[in-house]
Write a structure and sequence with these properties.
Elements (H helix, E strand, L loop, with lengths): L16 H11 L4 E9 L1 E2 L7 E2 L1 H9 L7 E3 L5 H6 L8 E11 L5 E8 L3
Antiparallel strand pairs: 1-6, 2-3, 4-5, 5-6
Length: 118
């Protein structure tokens, strides 16, 4: 399968991982990404042991559960969840809109992710 890149942000090899992440965030402020997967049908992370059935995700899309959902830079660690379970606004990169359930790959919820401007 051939992959198409619509947007590519080159990284400089100098800097800490945090500095590289900050540069990547800065280059995508205000952009919209279409077809971003929010959640897939199936088992979630091993720690929580959740399972997301297709019918539940379809119902979530139908009722607007995923519209306006905040997008974060990464998943919190177990320690992060214990210290700050509500997530920090500093980690928020944007919001999801125009969400749909797609049957591809076993089923998933996709949407547009509009990155916040700084």
């Amino acid at each position: 399968m051939k992959t198409k890149f619509r947007h590519f942000t080159p990284f400089s090899e100098s800097g800490t991982p945090a500095q590289l992440l900050e540069r990547a965030k800065a280059s995508s402020h205000g952009k919209t990404y279409r077809g971003v997967t929010i959640v897939k049908v199936g088992r979630g992370n091993k720690e929580d042991n959740n399972y997301y059935p297709a019918e539940t995700l379809k119902e979530g899309v139908k009722t607007g559960l995923f519209e306006g959902l905040r997008a974060f830079a990464d998943h919190p660690t177990s320690l992060d969840e214990h210290i700050l379970p509500e997530r920090s606004i500093r980690d928020m990169v944007g919001i999801y809109t125009n969400t749909k359930f797609k049957e591809m790959g076993g089923g998933r919820v996709v949407g547009k992710r509009k990155n916040k401007k700084r």
